[in-house]
């Protein structure tokens, strides 16, 4: 007779923290353990256990020796007839993933029970409890329930005077970075890390939102052409900017040319020659759009992916200063009595910084005092910053404006030459490139000291003052805490945190794509999984943009 076997979960619970589970072959009749083995919980739950039901017995057995040969414990604990009898295998938990209509409970509900089911039921409960605890079996439906599009504002929309603009921001995890940092994904289901699995999940989530503009970070250049196929079909057009030097990924900005016209754009490279704080390969895109149905209506969309290094908030601050100076140039309308005016602006992307920290406060509050702070931009910390963040030779003021652009605007004369070095051809059409021989006489480009330069009466530019400001009143679409003060998250870096944002000014947010809270995230299987294709969550918001009436 075939012995009845049982998975021992009592032992496994002791090892849960280490993500290993002990399994045992247990014979009911003699209450005896025949064999113990150890496996990683993810392999165990998904690949390794299948169930074979014959008239008088229920058997769980492991096949991880055949599926994951790289795995530490390769000896199958079950041998002989059970393993050979593959037609009887019924992948329990595989059914819980991949299929959008099913979840675990529906799988077990539809099963026909053999006689003497208590043992089967017990085992099934054990597995279900574990899979719920580690959430390997969450269905797409459950994920969707966590992420409704919620209404932020009951403001009425008038189709004649308002344009509804939906924008997404999504770091899709470049496959080459996943492979470079594979240790970060050692507990993930290996199948869910395959680009051919992740790609359609990512595309589906994006396409379902039917956004007008989609900002993607970590788009691997080698994957771009293939990735674009469904978007081209849906009549999206795109801009792509790879990070500089020997990196393989970059920013992809998709938009609908039927609705939106590109008026101007720039690819921003933060890498500036011989500037230590700007020696990283991150990039940004800034685009000025007009509406096809209202060609006088302009707005600016920018996306970026800032440096990862968690300690270097000073670098992210400098990168933000460069990005904002380019946004300032592109979004400027005119000088008014109360100062410069700008088109509506939306800035989104992966900033690699957490809410309410230094750079976040700079973005949302409009100023940040950096002198004397550490590289983390905390009061205590190594490598205290001087009054000089980026060198004055870049001619970007402490208010995130290009000095030459500012002087041209205020004095009506000058070259508008921007001093950012870039070898990118798109920039050449949109601004003159730094010329080492150009004459700069007002600004001492060799000085690291504080300089105040009067441009016109009552208007000065500052360099190296120790305080950074910018002229935009940005708000974040996400509040980062829900009404119960539970933190939201956009990615998992050992813990669930927010690093992705959508900031806006002069547009009215109507809806947002809800982010789960940290505790809700903890109920998800590790991402990427078979529902979420990236190690980040997708952000989204809908805005009301006032159409400009044509002056008659
Ligand atoms: O945090 V990210 O992942 O927005 O999801 O951005 C960076 C990191 C991305 C581009 O540089 O690559 C990831 N440890 C972990 N992840 C890293 C590291 C690292 N040392 N370096 C880069 N990335």
Question: In terms of topology, how is this protein built?
Answer:
Blueprint: H1 9-14, E1 20-27, E2 32-40, H2 41-48, E3 50-54, E4 57-61, H3 64-67, H4 81-84, H5 104-109, H6 118-134, H7 140-146, E5 149-151, E6 162-171, H8 175-180, H9 195-209, E7 213-220, H10 221-233, E8 237-242, E9 249-255, E10 260-269, E11 283-291, E12 294-305, H11 313-331, E13 332-336, E14 339-342, E15 345-350, H12 358-365, E16 367-369, H13 403-411, H14 425-430, E17 451-456, E18 459-463, E19 467-469, E20 475-476, E21 491-492, E22 496-497, E23 500-505, E24 508-513, H15 518-521, E25 539-546
Parallel strand pairs: 6-7, 12-15
Antiparallel strand pairs: 1-2, 3-4, 5-24, 6-25, 7-9, 8-9, 10-11, 11-12, 13-14, 15-23, 16-19, 17-18, 20-23, 21-22, 24-25
């Amino acid at each position: 007779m075939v012995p009845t076997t049982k998975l021992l979960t009592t032992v496994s619970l002791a090892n849960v923290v280490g993500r290993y589970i002990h399994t045992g072959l247990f014979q009911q009749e003699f209450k005896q353990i025949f064999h113990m083995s150890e496996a990683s919980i993810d392999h165990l739950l998904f690949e390794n256990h299948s169930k074979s039901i014959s008239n008088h017995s229920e058997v769980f057995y492991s096949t991880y020796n055949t599926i994951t040969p790289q795995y530490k414990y390769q000896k199958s604990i079950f041998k002989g007839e059970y393993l050979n009898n593959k037609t009887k295998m019924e992948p329990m938990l595989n059914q819980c993933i991949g299929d959008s209509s099913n979840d675990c409970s529906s799988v077990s509900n539809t099963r026909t029970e053999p006689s003497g089911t208590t043992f089967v039921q017990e085992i099934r409960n054990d597995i279900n409890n574990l899979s719920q605890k580690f959430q390997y079996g969450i269905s797409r439906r459950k994920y969707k329930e966590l992420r409704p599009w919620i209404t932020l504002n009951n403001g009425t929309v008038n189709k004649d005077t308002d344009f509804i603009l939906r924008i997404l921001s999504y770091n899709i995890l470049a496959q080459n970075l996943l492979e470079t940092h594979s240790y970060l994904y050692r507990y993930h289901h290996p199948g869910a890390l395959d680009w051919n699995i992740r790609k359609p999940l990512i595309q589906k989530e994006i396409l379902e939102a039917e956004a007008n503009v989609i900002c993607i970070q970590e788009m691997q250049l080698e994957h771009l052409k293939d990735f674009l196929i469904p978007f081209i079909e849906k009549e999206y057009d795109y801009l792509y900017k790879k990070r500089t030097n020997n990196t393989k990924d970059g920013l992809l900005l998709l938009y609908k040319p039927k609705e939106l016209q590109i008026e101007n754009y720039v690819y921003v490279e933060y890498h500036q020659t011989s500037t230590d704080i700007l020696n990283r390969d991150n990039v940004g895109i800034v685009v000025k759009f007009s509406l096809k149905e209202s060609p006088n209506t302009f707005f600016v969309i920018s996306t970026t992916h800032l440096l990862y290094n968690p300690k270097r908030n000073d670098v992210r601050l400098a990168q933000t200063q460069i990005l904002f100076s380019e946004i300032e140039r592109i979004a400027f309308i005119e000088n008014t009595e109360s100062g410069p005016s700008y088109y509506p602006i939306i800035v989104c992307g992966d900033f690699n910084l957490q809410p309410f920290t230094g750079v976040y406060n700079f973005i949302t509050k409009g100023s940040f005092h950096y002198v004397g702070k550490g590289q983390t931009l905390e009061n205590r910390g190594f490598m205290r910053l001087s009054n000089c963040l980026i060198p004055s030779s870049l001619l970007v003021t402490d208010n995130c404006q290009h000095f030459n652009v500012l002087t041209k605007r205020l004095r009506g004369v000058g070259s508008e030459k921007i001093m950012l070095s870039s070898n990118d051809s798109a920039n050449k059409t949109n601004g003159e490139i730094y010329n080492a021989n150009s004459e700069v006489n007002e600004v001492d480009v060799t000085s690291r000291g504080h300089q105040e330069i009067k441009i016109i009466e009552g208007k000065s530019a500052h360099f190296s003052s120790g305080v950074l400001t910018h002229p935009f009143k940005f708000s974040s679409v996400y509040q980062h805490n829900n009404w119960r003060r539970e933190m939201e998250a956009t990615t998992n870096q050992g813990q669930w945190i927010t690093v992705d944002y959508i900031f806006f000014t002069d547009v009215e947010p109507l809806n947002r794509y809800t982010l789960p809270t940290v505790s809700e995230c903890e109920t998800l299987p590790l991402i990427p999984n078979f529902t979420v294709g990236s190690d980040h969550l997708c952000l989204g918001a809908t805005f009301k943009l006032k159409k400009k009436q044509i002056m008659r």
